[in-house]
Design goal:
binds pyridoxal-5'-phosphate; globular
Length: 225
């Protein structure tokens, strides 16, 4: 199947999953994860009306969207880019300049630098805190235990606009418990947005309250690294 058919199918599945959960599908946004995908697949998605994309590396995203950003943003004024991968502090300025939402705020040093750059560039981007729900040592994200204090730090010390939580459940576990944990935490902290669910489990994530699902291969096909 091509990108257009994939998008159509996924939107139908999103609507179905939302309905099954007693939710409106207007509450769920599809972030089409375009990392590593060839340009022609991105063009197909744009032509089909997809306007929200996710990238996990700043430099790659700059090459794809930045070099075209002027023209593309004029042509597609409603284009939105989410950063969904780990952010190094030395790339924070570039990230603030390019992205519309940063989903991966996960440590104090990064929060401080992002806040400083947003002030400097006068781009006050909505952000998510990434939560390491599985406490995996190799994975980015704050622990659940540290989350309340980190949220306070991001808001009160840095003035960041934190709108929600994001997680990537452990690869080898049932994601249900992780989605539920993220939902419970967001609810307790008064955060509205939940970025969770990928190609294999986005319907399940919607059942658990996801407001953004990040789907890559399901939209574009497999990535050729
Ligand atoms: C690549 C990526 C996705 C998309 O994964 P698929 O399995 O291709 O849908 C989602 N979230 C993050 C953080 C990613 O890096």
């Amino acid at each position: 199947m091509g990108v257009v058919e994939n998008l159509d199918l996924i939107q139908k599945q999103i609507a179905r999953a939302a309905q099954a959960a007693g939710r409106s599908n207007a509450e769920v946004q599809l972030v089409a994860v375009s990392k590593v995908q060839p340009e022609e697949r991105i063009e197909e998605a744009l032509a089909a009306g997809q306007r929200l994309f996710g990238e996990n590396r700043v430099q790659e995203a700059q090459q794809r969207w930045g070099s075209f950003s002027e023209g593309r943003r004029v042509g597609y004024a409603d284009l939105k880019l989410h950063l969904i991968g780990p952010l190094q502090t030395n790339k924070a300025a570039d990230a603030v300049a390019l992205f519309d939402v940063i989903e991966t705020v996960d440590r104090e040093k990064l929060a401080r630098i992002l806040a400083k750059e947003m002030k400097k560039q006068e781009r006050h981007l909505p952000c998510f805190i990434q939560v390491n729900t599985g406490d995996e040592p190799q994975k980015a994200g704050v622990s659940v235990a540290d989350l309340p204090a980190f949220l306070e730090f991001c808001r009160d010390e840095c003035g960041l606009n934190i709108i929600g939580l994001m997680c990537i459940p452990p690869f080898d576990e049932d994601p249900a418990a992780h989605f539920e944990l993220l939902r419970t935490q967001a609810h307790a902290l008064g955060l509205k947005e939940l970025s969770m669910g990928m190609s294999g489990d986005y319907e399940q994530a919607i059942g658990a309250g996801a407001t953004y699902v990040r789907v890559g291969t399901g939209v574009f096909g497999s990535r050729d690294y």
